[in-house]
Design brief:
Shape: globular
Number of strands: 7
Structural class: alpha+beta
Strand order of the largest sheet: 1-2-3-4-5
Radius of gyration: 17 Å
Largest sheet: 5 strands, mixed
Strand content: 15-25%
Length: 181
């Protein structure tokens, strides 16, 4: 499949069905917790319909960028203006970056990261982004390492039996499967 140029555009309400399709794909690949559709819809509505947010509403502000034509999106990037629990300082927080598997050989992921960095620059707030993934984790880490400074890591203590693969690039050793109970 031939990809469109790797140029991120601001999503419109007409992109919502395709954003949902890509979100459901990313949740199937990387979701750690059960899906709450009403919560996702609420966040998406805030991004796609900011004009509906009352001026006195102190809730989150979000923006969604997409690659591809309306009706056939190839990638999505979803960010939130937020602050950590201990600070009033705002930052741009990545909620998801996802490229449809048909277009993973494109430069779409690079474009999505570049779009977030550009948005961070224009808003003059730092970008917090990272990888919480169950698939192709090592490749994602290598990409992010080339484009951004690393500031930490995430860990998961599973509640049930789950196979995890430690990526070679992070651990400095060949991948091995760990049985966690």
């Amino acid at each position: 499949m031939t990809a469109t140029p790797s140029v991120v555009r601001k999503a419109t309400p007409f992109d919502a069905p395709e954003i949902w399709r890509l979100f459901l794909q990313t949740h199937r690949e990387n979701g750690l917790f059960s899906l709450a559709p009403q919560k996702v819809t609420s966040f998406m509505d805030r991004a796609l319909h900011p004009e509906r947010i009352p001026l006195n509403d102190l809730g989150p502000r979000a923006q969604i960028g997409v690659i591809g034509p309306q009706g056939k999106l190839e990638a999505v990037v979803f960010v939130l203006v937020s602050s950590f629990w201990y600070s009033d300082d705002m930052h741009l927080e990545e909620l998801l970056v996802y490229v449809d598997p048909e277009y993973r050989k494109s430069r779409h992921a690079v474009a999505c990261i570049g779009w977030m960095k550009g948005l961070s620059d224009s808003l003059q707030i730092p970008l917090i982004t990272g990888i919480i993934s169950k698939e192709r984790t090592a490749a994602k880490i290598r990409l992010y390492d080339r484009m951004l400074p690393r500031i930490g890591a995430f860990y998961l203590y599973p509640k049930d039996d789950m196979e995890l693969v430690k990526p070679e690039t992070v651990m400095g050793e060949p991948p091995r499967k760990l049985k966690v109970a």
